[in-house]
Amino acid sequence: MNVAPRSADFIGDAVTAPLLALDHVSISYPTRDGILTAVEDVSFTLSASERLVLLGPSGCGKSTLLRTVGGFLKPSTGEIRLHGRRIDAPGPDRMTVFQEFDQLLPWRTVLGNVRYALERGKSLPRRQAEDVARHWLSRVGLKNFVDAYPHTLSGGMKQRVAIARAFALEPALLLMDEPFAALDALTRRQMQDELLKLCEETGSTALFVTHGIDEAIRVGTRILALTPHPGRLAATFDVPPDTRIRGTARFAELERQIQQSVFADPETEHV
Amino acid sequence: MSDIAAPKLVRAPALRRVFDGTPWRRAVILAGFALIWELYARWLDNALLLPTMGATLSALWAAIVSGELPDRTLTSLRVLITGYALGIAVAAALTTLAALSRWGNEALGLLTSMFNPLPAIALLPVALLWFGIGTPSLIFVIVHSVLWPVALACYGGFLAVPPTLRMAGRNLGLSGGRFVVEILVPAAFPQILSGLRIGWAFAWRTLIAAELVFGVSARSGGLGWFIYTSRAQLETASVFAGLLTVILIGLVVEGVIFRTLTRITVQRWGQEQA
Which residues on B lie below 8 Å from A91 (Cβ)? Predict the structure, then answer.
């Protein structure tokens, strides 16, 4: 498979600076009733091959924060740096998988969607883009659906295409905006497991947003819990590999700890 | 990761497919209309007011064989297509500007609300002053009749593009003209297509009306002129033959060109509007 290896210079960078750094980031935007602060004074760093989960109830600004890292929004104060460089626009070095199913181009086939992303995002020639696209589509189990149009696929399959597209571009950072929130519980579990496997196999660095504690433990190596209105960092939890297995006592214990520390306030919305 | 198996599909029986389709229903309705026309015309028995369908068809045939009707039709279509293409080009430029800048956005909004309600035919006197009697005047009014509905539909379509799809495009580093052409236009294609349909109907209507008002010279006049001169000579069957031609061309464009375009685009993409 002619998938290019990750460039060496970024490993060099990673030694001196973290892959991603958020420096006192606040995000506010005007609404009809005045200025709303969605995220207040959030700082954290993310190293290569880490999978950081932003966990919190709805309204804690976690999606807003992710979109700002994606470059779709600008922080009101503070700075976000990727490889030491300030982020000010979206780019294929930060591929986002969105929750909504309409993130795929409906006028392109499954293969066409991934191939187009490679042609535009990585400037690959058509033939090579097609080879890489086929490789990633078969890795997410969609070998038999390359010629299908998105509207003929189930929700889970659409998310697989979006995941294949994101991985195919080999971004420095994967951004996941509650990618499984609109799926049924069974499909969601399966997708979490498969995503985890892909991330581990590729050594990908990811920033993952969710409101599910079990999902956070399952996919993350580190969890940042946020409190709502405005979004602030509340607590950090490391997730050792042996804690990541569902049904174990360690899994349940961490789940309980997070539940208590994040959602203990009775006024906070339970998820 | 294990492969998901593709669903198996079987083809419906041929008779069932024919019966489920719309063409035969349309044929029945059309035959019904034809029958009513023929019977009513025979009962009325006044060829000057309403010729029978038979007389109309033979007038149509005669005009086709003599070469006059095909000639007139070609003249009209040439003007129509020029004006239509020009109108779409200007609409595309305006909506691209509107999609990319706030000033363009305001300008388009203002212009469409000013000019969309203005009937193209009302501009004909101005066109005659500016361009004189002839093709340029016709093209001017056709451009006007196409431009605003197409621009309006196109821009409405852009606004309706889901934010997630926009972000997915910008995520790839797309911006400017490429973002408009490769993301917004295909995403808004259902609305653009209906805008093109409306624009076509407006253009056709405007052209025939304009040709009726001033026929240009007899040598180079179009279908509208054919209808006008036939009426002047009290050849009502030829008037009806001319009208029938207008209708037939409309049916072909709608039933063949636009239908095919719909089938290979929005229908295949699962974006057909209800």
Answer: 171, 173
Looking up residue B190, the CATH number of its domain turns out to be 1.10.3720.10
Segment B192-218 mean pLDDT = 83
Determine the pLDDT at residue A264.
Answer: 66
Looking at the fold, whether A68 and A125 belong to one and the same domain comes out as: no
Tokens of A28: 């506010």
A185 and A71, same domain (yes or no): yes
- What pLDDT does residue A261 have? 79
Q: Give me the domain span that covers residue A25.
A: 15-93+172-263
B263 inside 8 A of chain A by CB = no
For residue A177, the domain's CATH number is 3.40.50.300
Residues A203 and A75 occupy one common structural domain: yes
Q: What total number of domains does chain A contain?
A: 2
User: Does A268 fall in a domain?
Assistant: no
Q: How many structural domains compose chain B?
A: 1
Residue A4 has pLDDT above 60, yes or no: no
A164 and A178 assigned to the same domain:
no
The chain B residue lying nearest A139, using CA atoms, is: B1
Q: Nearest-CA neighbor of B266 among B188, B207, B209? A: B188
Average pLDDT score, chain B: 88
Strands in A173-177's sheet, in edge-to-edge order, are A94-97, A173-177, A206-210, A51-55, A222-227, A232-238
User: Chain B residue with minimal CA distance to A143?
Assistant: B3
Contact list in A for residue B174 (CB cut-off 8 A) is 120
Q: Whats the size of chain A, residue-wise? A: 271
Alpha-carbon dihedral angle through residues A65, A69, A72, A76, given to the nearest 10 degrees: 60
| B268 Cβ under 8 Å from any chain A Cβ | yes
**Residue B169 lies inside a defined structural domain of this protein:** yes
Q: Between A and B, how many residue pairs show a Cβ–Cβ distance under 8 A?
A: 83
A65 confidence band (pLDDT: 50, 70, 90): very high
**Burial classification of residue B217, based on how many CB atoms lie within 10 Å of its CB (0-12 exposed, 13-18 middle, 19 or more buried):** exposed
Q: What is the pLDDT of residues B206-264, one digit of tens each?
A: 988 888 877 555 456 888 888 888 888 888 999 999 999 999 998 899 888 998 998 88
The DSSP 8-state label assigned to residue A241 in this structure reads G
